[in-house]
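Retry 2 of 3 after timeout on previous attempt. Resubmitting structure tokens to design endpoint.
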């Protein structure tokens, strides 16, 4: 009887071991399937299709705990550590929410807003900073921003504006309107803006006729003007002489007037890459201004190196039609303010022309502070 019991016990143990052996592969199979599931985005629509380019019906994501501020729009995040800031970016918004009075800084970039109306800003007269970049804004109601007397920074790049919003507050210090479809600038759009330091209009559809003769006349303290990537054929008229940086790359500019830079006392950076400038369109001494430090004339139609001041430090002339370099001709007069008497040019780029090494000896002898020459 003991033998029979021992035999039965052994048989039961063998059956249990066999069952356990059959179950072991199952977790392995399930783990092999998991990576393919985990790779699929958790917030994607059914069937795991790519994220749509148009606004979705998903509600704005909830980030962090509920706000301690009862006036915080439900679409936004109002952190207690920054009581004057509203973070409403990347929220799939179609319109600007009602902004509370206490707000000074408003972040609305990366949404699907297509117009700006007065209703949203009627109570928030303390706003100093508005970022509406990367939306779908086509229109701005008149006098929306005029009612914000404390506004200093207005960012509306990457939208679908066809004209510069009018009635902007006079106290603005920065206006960023790049990557729109702007072809019209209303007369007086920048009137009385004596504090404006930066005006960025690059990547638009601005033509010579878009810029009236006195469009910049009130910008007495403008430091940077960016009109790159437009369709200008002429240099903009009456540019403020307070400028430090002037960017005009990728236009169709063919010539520069004789005394265009004559009264500029602070202009240090000029960029005119990718234009239609030729020797005929450049007066001999047009760039001979002592404040100029960095001059970009790449991808034009120049056959000769223009004259420049002994104070210039960087000169970019790559991809032109230059066939020879005469160091004696381009060597500027010795600076009266430099004890060594040598020009300060440190970087000279000449590649993409009809030149071949070595660098002429008279260039080396004149520009003794050169660190690099690309030829």
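Retry 2 succeeded. Sequence:
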């Amino acid at each position: 009887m003991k033998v029979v019991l021992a035999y039965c016990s052994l048989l039961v143990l063998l059956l249990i071991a066999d069952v356990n052996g059959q179950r072991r592969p199952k977790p392995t199979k399930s783990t092999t399937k998991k990576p393919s599931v985990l790779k699929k985005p958790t917030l994607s629509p059914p069937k795991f299709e790519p994220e749509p380019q148009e606004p979705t019906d998903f509600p704005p994501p909830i980030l962090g705990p509920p706000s301690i501020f009862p006036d915080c729009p439900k679409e936004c995040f109002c952190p207690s550590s920054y009581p004057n800031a509203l973070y409403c970016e990347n929220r799939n918004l179609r319109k600007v929410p009602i902004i509370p009075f206490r707000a000074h800084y408003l972040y609305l970039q990366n949404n699907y807003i297509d117009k700006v109306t007065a209703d949203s800003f009627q109570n928030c007269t303390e706003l100093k900073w508005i970022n509406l970049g990367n939306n779908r804004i086509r229109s701005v109601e008149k006098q929306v921003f005029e009612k914000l007397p404390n506004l200093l920074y207005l960012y509306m790049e990457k939208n679908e504006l066809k004209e510069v919003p009018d009635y902007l507050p006079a106290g603005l210090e920065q206006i960023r309107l790049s990557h729109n479809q702007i072809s019209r600038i209303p007369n007086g759009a920048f009137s009385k803006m004596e504090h404006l330091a930066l005006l960025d209009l690059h990547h638009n559809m601005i033509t010579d006729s878009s810029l009236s003769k006195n469009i910049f006349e009130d910008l007495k303290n403008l430091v940077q003007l960016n009109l790159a990537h437009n369709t200008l054929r002429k240099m903009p008229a009456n540019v403020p002489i307070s400028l430090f940086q002037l960017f005009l790359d990728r236009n169709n500019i063919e010539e520069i007037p004789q005394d265009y830079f004559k009264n500029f006392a602070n202009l240090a950076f000029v960029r005119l890459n990718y234009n239609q400038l030729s020797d005929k369109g450049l007066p001999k001494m047009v760039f001979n201004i002592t404040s100029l430090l960095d001059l970009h004339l790449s991808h034009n139609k120049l056959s000769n190196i223009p004259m420049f001041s002994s104070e210039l430090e960087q000169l970019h002339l790559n991809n032109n039609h230059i066939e020879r370099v005469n160091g004696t001709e381009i060597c500027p007069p010795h600076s009266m303010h430099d004890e060594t008497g040598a020009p300060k040019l440190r970087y000279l780029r000449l590649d993409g022309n009809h030149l071949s090494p070595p660098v002429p000896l008279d260039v080396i002898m004149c520009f003794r502070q050169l660190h690099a020459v690309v030829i």
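Attempt log closed. Residues 1-52 have pLDDT under 50 and may be disordered.
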